[in-house]
Structures are given as C-alpha cells and as structure tokens.
Design a protein that fits this description.
The chain is α+β, with helices and mostly antiparallel strands. The chain contains four helices and five strands; from the N terminus they run βααβββαβα. A five-stranded mixed beta sheet has the order 1-2-3-4-5, with helices on both faces.
Length: 138
C-alpha cells in the first residue's frame, strides 16, 4: 500500500529522500550539491510543498513545489519523480498540490519536465507555455 506524506520544510526530508534523489537515472549532480541547493532555495520560505509517496517505508515517488510568486500567482514544481506510481497515486499527489497552491493564492502551476509535453497535456491538462532551453557546459 502506498502512503503519501506531506512536509512543509526541507529539513523534514529524511536521509532516504536524498539517497533516492541522488540515485535516479540521468542525475549526475553530487548529492551534497543538490541538497545544499534545495536547502538554500527552500529554507527561507514560509511555505513549501513536499509530497513523499512510500511503500513499506521506501520512497517510491516525490514532488517538491515552491509557493506562488506575488506577480504571476504561479506555484512552481521544482522536481518530481513518479515513474513507479499508479495513476491514482499520481492524481492524489497532484490534487493535493493543486489544493495547497490554491490555498496560497496560486492561479497556475508551472514546471519543467523531462517527459514529453504531450503526456502531461493528455493526462493532466498542462499546456506548453514557452520553451526550456539547455546548453551543456564543457
């Protein structure tokens, strides 16, 4: 059975979260670098949304979101991993994200995804709103 935990501060994330995040395929950053980034980016905020999905104590999915900004009223998903989750659990986490964001005055949710745009559009109603550009630095 999958359970969903909600946290509001990065210091509530346990060691297992950082190990899972560091071990994801395609993630080549150092664990300490990314945890330092998250702690700095989230640490001084009054609210942050952190959802962890666990099965038998193991983290099998997560989502971390920033509260909405004052001008665009857009909350932003910093990072998410849901590959092993059922559609029902993904939808439960997204539903909780939407409720949380609306409670803070958000009118939209933004994100950068490594998945294809059409998957998010078809499954969850997201629409492209610009382009994510990337340049490898060598």
């Amino acid at each position: 059975m999958t359970t969903i935990e909600i946290a509001t501060k990065p210091e509530q994330l346990d060691t297992e979260f950082w190990k899972v995040l560091h071990g994801l395929p395609g993630r080549d950053y150092a664990l300490s670098d990314f945890s330092a980034f998250l702690m700095e980016a989230l640490g001084d905020r009054e609210a942050v949304g952190i959802w962890l999905a666990r099965e038998e104590g193991r983290i099998v999915g997560f989502l971390i979101a920033l509260p909405p900004d004052a001008i665009a009223k857009c909350a932003f998903v910093l990072t998410a991993y849901a590959t092993g989750l059922t559609k029902e659990i993904r939808e439960e986490i997204l539903g909780q994200l939407y409720t949380w964001a609306k409670s803070l005055g958000a009118r939209a949710i933004g994100m950068v995804t490594e998945r294809r745009e059409d998957v998010w559009t078809r499954a969850y109603g997201y629409k492209p709103a610009g382009a994510y550009m990337r340049k490898e630095l060598v």
